[in-house]
Automatic annotation (TrEMBL):
Keywords: Cell membrane, Membrane, Transmembrane, Transmembrane helix. Residues 22-102 form the Single Cache domain. This is Single Cache domain-containing protein. Residues 1-20 are annotated as: Disordered. It is found in: Cell membrane. It comes from the Archaea. Its main location: membrane.
Protein backbone atom coordinates (compact mmCIF):
# COMPACT_ATOMS: atom_id res chain seq x y z
CA UNK A 1 0.00 0.00 0.00
CA UNK A 2 1.32 3.45 -0.86
CA UNK A 3 2.32 5.75 1.98
CA UNK A 4 -0.30 8.44 1.45
CA UNK A 5 -0.42 9.14 5.20
CA UNK A 6 3.25 9.97 5.67
CA UNK A 7 4.37 12.99 7.68
CA UNK A 8 3.01 16.22 6.20
CA UNK A 9 5.48 19.07 5.61
CA UNK A 10 4.07 22.60 5.12
CA UNK A 11 5.40 24.58 2.16
CA UNK A 12 7.60 27.60 3.00
CA UNK A 13 5.05 30.07 1.64
CA UNK A 14 2.18 28.58 3.65
CA UNK A 15 0.41 31.09 5.91
CA UNK A 16 -1.94 28.53 7.49
CA UNK A 17 -1.42 26.37 10.54
CA UNK A 18 0.75 23.33 9.62
CA UNK A 19 -1.08 20.05 9.22
CA UNK A 20 -0.95 17.55 12.06
CA UNK A 21 2.06 15.26 12.00
CA UNK A 22 1.21 11.64 11.30
CA UNK A 23 3.26 8.45 11.45
CA UNK A 24 4.09 6.96 8.06
CA UNK A 25 2.83 3.62 6.78
CA UNK A 26 6.42 2.43 6.50
CA UNK A 27 7.04 3.11 10.19
CA UNK A 28 3.88 1.18 11.09
CA UNK A 29 4.84 -1.84 9.00
CA UNK A 30 8.42 -1.88 10.33
CA UNK A 31 7.13 -1.69 13.91
CA UNK A 32 4.80 -4.67 13.43
CA UNK A 33 7.44 -6.70 11.62
CA UNK A 34 9.85 -6.07 14.51
CA UNK A 35 7.25 -7.48 16.89
CA UNK A 36 6.90 -10.62 14.77
CA UNK A 37 10.68 -11.02 14.85
CA UNK A 38 10.57 -10.66 18.64
CA UNK A 39 8.07 -13.53 18.88
CA UNK A 40 10.25 -15.72 16.67
CA UNK A 41 13.31 -15.00 18.78
CA UNK A 42 11.76 -15.17 22.27
CA UNK A 43 8.65 -17.33 22.01
CA UNK A 44 4.96 -16.57 22.43
CA UNK A 45 4.80 -16.41 26.25
CA UNK A 46 7.69 -13.99 26.63
CA UNK A 47 6.52 -11.88 23.69
CA UNK A 48 2.94 -11.50 24.95
CA UNK A 49 4.24 -10.46 28.36
CA UNK A 50 6.34 -7.77 26.68
CA UNK A 51 3.48 -6.61 24.43
CA UNK A 52 1.18 -6.30 27.49
CA UNK A 53 3.70 -4.17 29.40
CA UNK A 54 2.61 -0.49 29.11
CA UNK A 55 6.23 0.47 29.83
CA UNK A 56 7.69 -2.15 27.51
CA UNK A 57 9.69 -1.83 24.33
CA UNK A 58 6.61 -2.13 22.12
CA UNK A 59 4.77 0.95 23.36
CA UNK A 60 6.09 3.99 21.48
CA UNK A 61 3.76 6.97 21.47
CA UNK A 62 0.69 6.17 19.38
CA UNK A 63 2.29 2.88 18.32
CA UNK A 64 1.70 -0.18 20.47
CA UNK A 65 1.28 -3.86 19.72
CA UNK A 66 -1.99 -5.68 20.25
CA UNK A 67 -2.57 -9.39 19.62
CA UNK A 68 -5.65 -11.55 19.03
CA UNK A 69 -6.36 -15.16 18.29
CA UNK A 70 -8.51 -15.94 15.25
CA UNK A 71 -11.54 -16.52 17.49
CA UNK A 72 -11.42 -12.85 18.52
CA UNK A 73 -9.94 -13.23 22.01
CA UNK A 74 -7.52 -10.51 23.08
CA UNK A 75 -4.04 -11.86 23.86
CA UNK A 76 -2.24 -8.53 24.33
CA UNK A 77 -3.36 -4.92 24.71
CA UNK A 78 -1.18 -2.59 26.80
CA UNK A 79 -3.64 0.31 26.56
CA UNK A 80 -6.77 -1.66 27.51
CA UNK A 81 -5.46 -4.48 29.75
CA UNK A 82 -8.97 -5.28 30.96
CA UNK A 83 -9.67 -6.65 27.46
CA UNK A 84 -6.99 -9.36 27.69
CA UNK A 85 -8.73 -12.74 27.75
CA UNK A 86 -11.99 -11.21 26.47
CA UNK A 87 -13.54 -12.41 23.22
CA UNK A 88 -14.46 -9.29 21.22
CA UNK A 89 -15.58 -10.82 17.93
CA UNK A 90 -19.23 -9.97 18.60
CA UNK A 91 -18.54 -6.62 20.26
CA UNK A 92 -20.65 -3.97 18.54
CA UNK A 93 -19.40 -0.89 20.38
CA UNK A 94 -17.14 1.14 18.13
CA UNK A 95 -17.32 -1.49 15.38
CA UNK A 96 -14.66 -3.60 17.12
CA UNK A 97 -16.18 -6.97 16.19
CA UNK A 98 -16.48 -6.04 12.52
CA UNK A 99 -12.93 -4.70 12.54
CA UNK A 100 -11.56 -7.95 14.01
CA UNK A 101 -13.36 -10.10 11.46
CA UNK A 102 -11.98 -7.94 8.67
CA UNK A 103 -8.47 -8.12 10.13
CA UNK A 104 -8.71 -11.91 10.44
CA UNK A 105 -9.27 -12.05 6.69
CA UNK A 106 -6.65 -9.39 5.93
CA UNK A 107 -3.81 -11.08 7.82
CA UNK A 108 -4.67 -14.48 6.40
CA UNK A 109 -4.66 -13.32 2.79
CA UNK A 110 -1.37 -11.50 3.26
CA UNK A 111 -2.58 -7.91 2.79
CA UNK A 112 -2.70 -7.14 6.49
CA UNK A 113 -4.32 -3.68 6.32
CA UNK A 114 -7.63 -2.54 7.80
CA UNK A 115 -9.33 0.62 9.04
CA UNK A 116 -11.37 1.63 12.07
CA UNK A 117 -12.70 4.97 13.37
CA UNK A 118 -11.10 5.60 16.75
CA UNK A 119 -10.76 8.45 19.26
CA UNK A 120 -7.37 10.19 18.99
CA UNK A 121 -6.46 11.44 22.50
CA UNK A 122 -3.49 13.45 21.19
CA UNK A 123 -5.66 15.67 18.96
CA UNK A 124 -8.49 16.86 21.16
CA UNK A 125 -10.12 13.41 21.41
CA UNK A 126 -11.46 13.79 17.89
CA UNK A 127 -12.74 10.77 16.02
CA UNK A 128 -10.17 9.89 13.36
CA UNK A 129 -9.53 7.18 10.85
CA UNK A 130 -6.96 4.67 12.08
CA UNK A 131 -5.00 2.49 9.68
CA UNK A 132 -4.19 -0.93 11.14
CA UNK A 133 -1.58 -3.38 9.97
CA UNK A 134 -1.44 -6.98 11.18
CA UNK A 135 0.62 -10.09 10.54
CA UNK A 136 -0.30 -13.73 11.15
CA UNK A 137 2.15 -15.27 13.60
CA UNK A 138 0.93 -18.84 13.25
CA UNK A 139 -2.33 -20.71 12.64
CA UNK A 140 -3.76 -19.55 15.98
CA UNK A 141 -3.06 -15.84 16.33
CA UNK A 142 -1.93 -12.54 14.85
CA UNK A 143 -0.54 -9.25 16.06
CA UNK A 144 -0.77 -5.70 14.81
CA UNK A 145 -0.66 -1.99 15.46
CA UNK A 146 -2.20 1.17 14.03
CA UNK A 147 -1.65 4.82 13.12
CA UNK A 148 -4.02 7.77 12.86
CA UNK A 149 -4.41 9.15 9.35
CA UNK A 150 -6.81 12.09 9.74
CA UNK A 151 -10.52 12.79 10.07
CA UNK A 152 -12.77 9.76 9.96
CA UNK A 153 -14.89 9.50 6.81
CA UNK A 154 -18.19 8.85 8.59
CA UNK A 155 -21.82 9.35 7.66
CA UNK A 156 -23.08 12.76 8.77
CA UNK A 157 -25.29 11.27 11.47
CA UNK A 158 -22.33 9.53 13.10
CA UNK A 159 -20.15 12.61 13.39
CA UNK A 160 -22.50 15.59 13.72
CA UNK A 161 -21.86 19.19 14.66
CA UNK A 162 -22.52 19.64 18.37
CA UNK A 163 -24.45 22.74 19.36
CA UNK A 164 -22.60 25.11 21.69
CA UNK A 165 -25.24 24.70 24.42
CA UNK A 166 -24.38 21.00 24.84
CA UNK A 167 -20.81 20.31 26.07
CA UNK A 168 -18.59 18.00 24.03
CA UNK A 169 -18.40 14.71 25.94
CA UNK A 170 -16.53 12.28 23.66
CA UNK A 171 -13.57 10.81 25.50
CA UNK A 172 -12.59 8.64 28.47
CA UNK A 173 -13.92 9.43 31.95
CA UNK A 174 -12.54 7.74 35.08
CA UNK A 175 -13.67 7.63 38.71
CA UNK A 176 -11.04 8.22 41.37
CA UNK A 177 -13.38 6.73 43.93
CA UNK A 178 -17.04 6.09 44.59
CA UNK A 179 -19.44 4.49 47.03
CA UNK A 180 -22.06 1.75 46.74
CA UNK A 181 -24.87 1.59 49.32
CA UNK A 182 -26.82 -1.59 50.12
CA UNK A 183 -30.23 -0.76 51.62
CA UNK A 184 -32.25 -3.25 53.61
CA UNK A 185 -33.00 -3.24 57.34
CA UNK A 186 -29.60 -1.58 57.63
CA UNK A 187 -27.53 0.57 55.28
CA UNK A 188 -24.14 -0.80 54.38
CA UNK A 189 -21.61 0.85 52.12
CA UNK A 190 -18.45 -0.18 50.31
CA UNK A 191 -16.05 1.32 47.73
CA UNK A 192 -17.35 1.28 44.16
CA UNK A 193 -14.13 -0.09 42.67
CA UNK A 194 -12.84 0.65 39.18
CA UNK A 195 -15.12 2.72 36.96
CA UNK A 196 -14.31 3.89 33.44
CA UNK A 197 -16.91 5.45 31.15
CA UNK A 198 -16.00 5.88 27.48
CA UNK A 199 -18.15 8.22 25.39
CA UNK A 200 -17.56 7.18 21.78
CA UNK A 201 -20.18 9.29 19.98
CA UNK A 202 -22.28 12.42 20.43
CA UNK A 203 -25.23 13.51 18.34
CA UNK A 204 -26.21 16.94 19.64
CA UNK A 205 -27.75 16.28 23.09
CA UNK A 206 -27.42 12.46 22.89
CA UNK A 207 -24.20 10.69 23.88
CA UNK A 208 -23.41 6.98 23.77
CA UNK A 209 -20.59 4.64 24.70
CA UNK A 210 -19.72 1.93 27.21
CA UNK A 211 -18.68 1.68 30.86
CA UNK A 212 -16.34 -0.76 32.56
CA UNK A 213 -16.66 -1.31 36.30
CA UNK A 214 -15.84 -3.81 39.03
CA UNK A 215 -18.56 -5.69 40.90
CA UNK A 216 -18.28 -6.40 44.65
CA UNK A 217 -17.14 -9.96 43.93
CA UNK A 218 -14.25 -8.67 41.80
CA UNK A 219 -15.66 -9.49 38.38
CA UNK A 220 -15.55 -6.79 35.71
CA UNK A 221 -18.62 -5.70 33.73
CA UNK A 222 -18.74 -3.95 30.35
CA UNK A 223 -22.08 -2.30 29.57
CA UNK A 224 -23.21 0.05 26.80
CA UNK A 225 -25.11 3.22 27.68
CA UNK A 226 -26.95 6.18 26.19
CA UNK A 227 -27.15 9.58 27.87
CA UNK A 228 -29.46 12.48 27.02
CA UNK A 229 -28.71 16.06 28.04
CA UNK A 230 -31.57 17.85 29.75
CA UNK A 231 -32.47 21.34 28.49
CA UNK A 232 -30.21 22.98 31.10
CA UNK A 233 -27.17 21.58 29.23
CA UNK A 234 -25.60 20.45 32.52
CA UNK A 235 -27.51 17.36 33.65
CA UNK A 236 -27.69 14.05 31.78
CA UNK A 237 -30.13 11.15 32.11
CA UNK A 238 -28.44 7.80 31.46
CA UNK A 239 -29.82 4.36 30.69
CA UNK A 240 -27.54 1.33 30.31
CA UNK A 241 -27.86 -2.05 28.64
CA UNK A 242 -29.57 -3.80 31.62
CA UNK A 243 -32.15 -0.99 31.67
CA UNK A 244 -30.89 0.80 34.80
CA UNK A 245 -31.01 4.57 35.15
CA UNK A 246 -28.49 7.13 36.40
CA UNK A 247 -28.27 10.90 36.55
CA UNK A 248 -25.15 12.87 35.71
CA UNK A 249 -24.36 16.49 36.60
CA UNK A 250 -21.44 18.41 35.11
CA UNK A 251 -19.50 20.33 37.75
CA UNK A 252 -17.25 21.64 34.97
CA UNK A 253 -16.20 20.50 31.49
CA UNK A 254 -13.94 17.78 32.92
CA UNK A 255 -15.88 16.64 36.02
CA UNK A 256 -19.11 14.61 35.99
CA UNK A 257 -21.02 13.61 39.13
CA UNK A 258 -23.03 10.38 38.76
CA UNK A 259 -25.82 9.13 41.02
CA UNK A 260 -27.51 5.80 40.32
CA UNK A 261 -29.96 3.29 41.77
CA UNK A 262 -30.52 -0.41 41.18
CA UNK A 263 -33.52 -2.40 42.49
CA UNK A 264 -31.07 -5.20 43.29
CA UNK A 265 -32.63 -8.46 44.45
CA UNK A 266 -34.76 -9.76 47.32
CA UNK A 267 -32.01 -9.04 49.84
CA UNK A 268 -31.14 -5.39 49.16
CA UNK A 269 -31.63 -2.31 47.01
CA UNK A 270 -28.48 -0.65 45.75
CA UNK A 271 -27.55 2.97 45.14
CA UNK A 272 -24.26 4.65 44.46
CA UNK A 273 -22.34 7.75 43.53
CA UNK A 274 -19.26 8.45 41.43
CA UNK A 275 -17.22 11.48 40.46
CA UNK A 276 -15.87 10.96 36.93
CA UNK A 277 -12.95 13.01 35.66
CA UNK A 278 -12.15 13.38 31.97
CA UNK A 279 -8.92 11.48 31.27
CA UNK A 280 -6.87 13.88 29.15
CA UNK A 281 -4.09 11.25 28.84
CA UNK A 282 -6.34 8.46 27.46
Amino acid sequence: MQSDSSTAVPTPESTTVPQAQYTSNETLVAFVESAVAYVQENGKKTALAEFNDPNGAFVRGELYIYAYDFNGTTLAHPVNPEKVGVNRLNETEGGVGTFLREMNDAVRNGDGFGRIAYINPTRGRTLESKLAYGVQVDEDWWLGSGIYTGSADLPAAANPTIRADYPAMVGVWRADDGTVYFLNDTIDKMPAGENRWVVTAQDDRVISGFKIFSLPDGTVENQTFVGIFNPDGETISFIDRPGEWATGSLADQNTLFIAWTNPGDDTATMAGSLILHRDITA
